[in-house]
Amino acid sequence: MRLIFRDVLNHGERSVLTSEAAACAGKQNKFWEMHALLFQHQARSFSTAPDQFTSFMQELAGQIAGLDVNAFTQCYANHETRAAIIAADEEHRQRGITAQPIFEIGAQRLFGFQSVAVMSKAIDAELAKR
Q1: Bridge-partner residues for 108, per DSSP?
Q2: Helix, strand counts (H, E) of the chain
Q3: What is the 3-state secondary structure (H, E, C) of 39-85?
Q4: Whole-number Cα distances in Å, 126 to 115, 117, 123
Q5: Residue of 98 and 41 predicted with greater confidence
Q6: What whole-number distance in Å separates Cα of residue 8 and Cα of residue 22?
Q7: Average pLDDT of the residues in 103-113
Q8: Domain residue limits, the chain
Q9: pTM value?
Q10: Mean pLDDT across the chain, nearest whole number?
């Protein structure tokens, strides 16, 4: 079993910008820390003016212990991760991944949150094939 996180850019430019922030933090092995902060501050993300967004992302980056904020800022300002994020989103959409969460268990795709019973049944069915 493996967990794969896929960005789904379903909130326009803000999705791209927040995904870039997470990816830039990820270049320093701090993806999940930024991910957590972005979810914690979702409301602020939607209310922040576009011209203030970089400052907001730098503020969040500054809250992550061990993150080099200067390197993060350079990555973010230069959009070093943007092309890869957009390309991955296009690939996901071609595969039918347009929302989250999605659970892929073998060839079966489960959309949305699932009960333990549903997940167990899907996993057992996949294991029975092997």
Answers
A1: 105
A2: 7, 2
A3: HHCHHHHHHCCHHHHHHHHHHHHCCCCCCCHHHHHHHHHCCCCHHHH
A4: 17, 14, 5
A5: 41
A6: 13
A7: 88
A8: 13-94, 100-130
A9: 0.82
A10: 92
The one-letter amino acid code at 13 reads E
Helix-, strand-, coil-residue percentages of the chain, each rounded to 5: 60, 5, 35
| End-to-end CA gap in the chain | 14
| Identity of residue 44 | R
Q: What angle do CA 11, 12, 14 make, to 5 degrees?
A: 80
| Burial (0-12, 13-18, 19+ Cβ within 10 Å), 89 | buried
Residue that is written with structure tokens 């943007």 in the block = 82
Q: How far apart are the C-alpha atoms of 62 and 72, rounded to whole Å?
A: 10
Listed residue (108, 83, 86, 110) closest to 99, CA to CA: 110
Euclidean distance between CA atoms 38 and 64, whole angstroms:
12
Question: What are the backbone dihedrals phi and psi of residue 50, each rounded to the nearest 5 degrees, phi first?
Answer: -55, -40
At residue 126, φ and ψ (nearest 5 deg) are: -70, -40
